[in-house]
Design a protein that fits this description.
repressor (chains A, B), 230 residues, DNA-binding, DNA-binding (chains A, B), disordered C terminus, transcription regulation (chains A, B), mainly alpha, homodimer, HTH-type_TetR-like_transc_reg (chains A, B)
Chain lengths: 230, 230
DNA sequence: ATGAAAGCCGAGCATTCACTCGGGTTTCAT
DNA sequence: ATGAAACCCGAGTGAATGCTCGGCTTTCAT
């Protein structure tokens, strides 16, 4: 059950009296595992977890299936490793708290160039709702965390008068998370007519007060014209 | 490629000179196929298309796998038949055009009693984004139709002054579809903390003007308190 | 009633699946 | 340098998959 990436202190503890024992991964191992995980992103992203095979991943990584299983003993452990890998190297969008909306829209625009990633999360979050799916707990935790984070940011914006009166941060936070999730799935099915950043901006413009006039009076922000038609 | 449900006129044409030929389905066939399709909803809903097997469906329907394949020659055709079956018997929510929001919220509340159905659509819409998935075209069409329908309803509401100024029906329509889709997936992962009707009502309250004061002035509708916390 | 088609199923079939085994090659601390 | 562990792989293994085949039973228009 030990993930490949977890620091195994016992390997590193160089006891003088311990003449022999496990030596830990070699220098090239990290790079090889990165190759495998990148291949797994593509396979699980394009075929899903149930639909993709470890043979597919091994082929795409240019190694034998047996070697893959040496690094990640089971398919389920490989999937968990993929998700943790993507979390580790994901672009930690900086952005000040005041630029909440801009940060989200910018991230959505950035994602348009990473269809593999979007596919991975869309396919797996749906699959993960099934019984005993190895990624189920990951997505339960992930969505709960996101809802909490967004609600918190919106509460802060409310405290400085940037949230439109009548908007409950504990409703709007989960709304952003769900909207983002849903619109990305639709974008994968219909890339030409669905505008992910546009839809998100449309909602954020609805609930936020523009920075200049913190005293909110009416919904006078310009209509958002998205390419989303029909 | 002929779906089981399509009316096959050639069977019914009783030509006097045709002494023998295909006779069409027997009386009990419709009921049997309904059993199979109900079983398939549960299997594909709880395990996904790739994760569920036709053996599972046959077992749950209480028939042999071979008999199932007599009625639905391939697994892919079974899936398509399931989706069309659910469309055919789906509760055609009446509701006047003016009661747009109420109709949606009522449908969402109704869905809480049909977790099998919600699972089916959530799991499959994610899976369907993968290459060559037999349900891909179904979901492409379905989402496009829903976006168009909702945008149309909102355009009508705008024409009678019930849409908040500044809200573009062509953005809000797709937003409702995506939000619904996303929040249902999260509900399946976290049924106790996610309130599907509440989140939808929160958005609809934001974009619609209450019936009584068609002259909209501020966001003075009460804050929506959902059970959605953290 | 009869007989042809529909309905139904046990027994396979070829393939793919995740995973194991045994043994070779490479790395690297000593 | 050396030797133990890490790395790597060919060749399986057993189970499950979607689907076919051949033949029996049931339905029902004639």
């Amino acid at each position: 059950m030990l993930g490949f990436h977890e620091i195994r202190l016992d390997y590193m503890t160089k006891k003088a009296n311990a003449r022999s024992g496990p030596r830990g991964p070699y220098a090239k191992t990290a790079e090889r595992q990165r190759q495998i995980l990148e291949a797994a992103v593509e396979v699980f992203g394009s075929r899903g977890y149930n639909g993709g095979s470890i043979q597919d991943v091994a082929d795409r990584a240019g190694i034998s299936q047996t070697t893959l299983l040496h690094h990640f003993p089971t398919k389920a452990q490989l999937l968990v490793a993929v998700l943790e890998y993507r979390d580790r190297i994901s672009t930690s969008t900086p952005g000040t708290r005041e630029r909440f909306a801009e940060t989200i829209v910018r991230q959505a625009e950035h994602n348009e160039g990473l269809p593999h990633l979007v596919e991975l999360y869309s396919v797996l979050s749906g699959e993960a709702t099934t019984e005993d799916h190895p990624a189920r707990n990951y997505f339960v935790q992930r969505f709960a965390r996101l809802r909490k984070e967004y609600s918190g940011e919106l509460r802060y914006l409310a405290s400085i008068g940037r949230l439109r009166p009548g908007v409950d941060p504990d409703v709007a936070g989960p709304t952003i998370v769900a909207l983002w999730e849903g619109i990305q799935t639709e974008w994968l099915l219909n890339p030409d007519t669905v505008d992910v950043p546009g839809i998100l901006k449309g909602y954020l413009d609805l609930i936020l007060v523009p920075e200049e006039n913190a005293g909110w009076s009416s919904g006078a922000t310009d209509t958002v014209h998205a390419k989303s038609r029909q």
